[in-house]
Amino acid sequence: VVGSLLTLPFLKAASGLDVFIAPDEPSRVLLREIERAFVSDEVVFVATESDDPFSQAALSEVRGLGEGFAALEWKGADGQVVPLVEEVVSLATVKDVSGADQTFRSVPLVPDDIPSDPGALAAIRARALRNPLIKDGLLSDDRPGSAALLVRFEHGLTPEQRTFGVEQVRAGLTSSKAMRFHVTGGPVAEVD
Question: I want to staple 104 with a disulfide (CB 3.0 to 4.6 A). Which of 99, 117, 152, 168 is the partner?
């Protein structure tokens, strides 16, 4: 029993079933091909908390964080540069659908120049709340000041690259004085 307890500090938590399946197992190879073609579960979920996620200050801060995360790169010892992030989705970057005269188009929920006018910000909030994909995917029913920022990593990152990416996301969140953050997701569980 004592010998078993001494090994506890060396145990590593792993998420998912990948640790139980050989890397060359045909079903695992197929799963990786499907993930590459469609979407992966390599997402870091950042819950943001502020007084109002639709304020100019909150939208500006989330947009800046997203731009920084989207630019994350791994520079290997051989000089090779690997982009780490495939996509960042937040209130400041998500697209909304607008329709008129039997046509639909995809438009940013928040314009490039984030408005400061309370009426324009209220219109953004109203559009977000009307769109169930935005309302249910990026906003919290329980906490009106909370919103999600999703950082989807590129497919096929090494564990070292993924760890670096998670560390960089966490580091990027430390500079905020007005917002609070909570981080989770598969890559975070693997690092922790």
Answer: 99
